[in-house]
Design goal:
Elements: H1 2-27, H2 31-50, E1 61-63, E2 66-68, H3 70-92, H4 107-128, H5 132-154, H6 167-188, H7 193-214, H8 220-250, H9 256-259
Antiparallel strand pairs: 1-2
């Protein structure tokens, strides 16, 4: 009985961790918070995959005295890679410069864009210390948590297959629902390309977890392709984010990150 309670506490702790890191991604838009939170989501996903029964995913990877399954290593490499790419993209903005051949705007269009940028900057400055800016995402976070729990109870996709009836699979349902719903929310309310990338990465992580659980045979090739898509998505968003930032810089306009 004590061992079962210990397992339950670990699974519950992982679920609370997913909520905390997901909440940071939803409520705050600062990259100094978002990138560590995204890395934390991948770390917890690795911990959850490591707790899969050995009869379900064999522990074939041995590192010293530590044994785990290969999916943990794949997910860890994917998380470190995508977060590293996004971090380098944010840092590279400091020394990125637009090409000299950038086509200049006419004076009227340039004046209108600068006026819109100044107006947005003043709006952001007033809203920065407004409690409402954090209350609305917090309220949305509470709705997402309730929706996740309701869906996991009403439509347990993982619990509906021929798996042992344990609490662990309910937490797997909670996790993949949470990753998918929070990712969709971030995509819908994103202000920059990289925020869209973070939301899509969470959605892919949720789909990957669901596929891993429902697949009758461990399709490592398909799982590897899903993780490769995550890395390609991070690379594509890095390219588009830098391209968009350089265009704004060429027009002497601030990005959404600089408004904050």
């Amino acid at each position: 009985m004590g061992l079962e309670n210990l397992q339950l506490s670990v699974e519950l702790g992982l679920w609370i961790g997913f909520l905390v890191f997901g909440g940071l991604l939803i409520v705050f838009r600062d990259w100094r918070i978002a990138l560590p939170a995204l890395l934390g989501e991948y770390f917890l996903l690795c911990a959850l995959l490591d707790r899969f029964p050995e009869t379900f995913i064999p522990r074939t990877l041995v590192v010293g005295e530590f044994t785990t399954n290969a999916l943990v290593a794949v997910k860890a490499v994917t998380g470190l890679t995508v977060v590293g790419i996004l971090t380098l993209t944010v840092i590279s903005r400091r020394w990125a410069r637009p090409p000299e051949s950038e086509q200049a705007l006419d004076e009227i269009t340039e004046a209108r864009l600068r006026w819109a940028a100044r107006r947005m900057a003043r709006t952001q400055e007033r809203a920065r210390f407004s409690l409402w800016v954090y209350l609305l995402p917090t309220f949305a976070l509470a709705i997402l948590i309730a929706a996740t729990y309701a869906l996991a109870r009403l439509y347990p996709l993982v619990g509906s297959v021929n798996l042992p009836e344990t609490t662990f699979w309910f937490y797997v349902d909670l996790t993949w629902y949470w990753l998918t719903l929070s990712g969709l929310f971030i995509v819908l309310f994103a202000r920059e390309v990289q925020e869209i990338c973070v939301g899509l990465l969470l959605c892919l992580a949720g789909v990957d977890l669901l596929y891993t659980t429902l697949s009758e045979s461990m399709g490592l090739l398909a799982i590897g392709l899903l993780n490769a898509v995550s890395i390609l998505l991070a690379l594509g968003s890095a390219y588009l984010a830098l391209l968009f930032y350089l265009r704004l810089q060429g027009w002497q306009l601030p990005s959404a990150e600089e408004w904050d």
